[in-house]
Structure formats: structure tokens, C-alpha cells
């Protein structure tokens, strides 16, 4: 899989390749970080790191969890519950 085949990264590649003009348009669906037992609970993501091959991202959130998202499959693959705040 080439990096430019990940749709939402395409915007950044366009910026790098064509700095004189930029056409911004929505080219992807939102990533769904919900877990089956989430219900209506919502949360904020404070940090995101892409894997070296661009196939996954890891996100830290305010629910004290770390999420691993498979970009190729477009699905959440792992939720790690972190420690509680003292």
C-alpha cells in the first residue's frame, strides 16, 4: 500500500506537491472510534501518531484509553484502558 492511497493523507500530499494553490474538499469518511459498549458517550482525542507504514494510527483520548485504528480496514482494532487519574 502506498502512502498516497490513504485518502485523508492525500490532502497533505497535495499541499506538499502543489504549494501555489490548494483545493480543499472532503475525501474521506470520519474515523469511528466507538466501541460496542460506548452507547452515546463521546470523548476527545488529544494525541495521534501514525505507524511508519501509514497503515495504522494510535490515539490517546480523555477517557484514559489508547486506541489503535486500522486505516486499511477502516476500523478500530484495539482499545487499551490506561490508568485512572489520581
UniProtKB/TrEMBL annotation:
WD repeats lie at residues 45-79. SUPFAM superfamilies: WD40 repeat-like. Residues 1-22 form the signal peptide. It comes from the Eukaryota. Keywords: Signal, WD repeat. This is LEC14B protein-like. It comes from Nelumbo nucifera (Sacred lotus).
Amino acid at each position: 500500500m502506498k502512502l498516497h492511497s490513504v485518502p485523508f493523507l492525500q490532502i497533505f500530499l497535495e499541499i506538499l506537491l502543489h504549494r501555489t494553490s490548494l483545493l480543499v474538499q472532503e475525501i474521506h469518511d470520519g474515523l469511528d472510534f466507538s466501541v460496542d459498549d460506548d452507547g452515546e458517550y463521546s470523548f476527545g482525542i488529544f494525541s495521534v501518531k501514525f505507524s511508519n507504514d501509514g497503515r495504522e494510527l494510535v490515539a490517546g483520548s480523555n477517557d484514559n484509553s489508547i486506541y489503535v485504528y486500522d486505516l486499511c480496514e477502516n476500523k478500530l482494532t484495539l482499545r487499551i484502558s490506561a490508568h485512572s487519574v489520581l
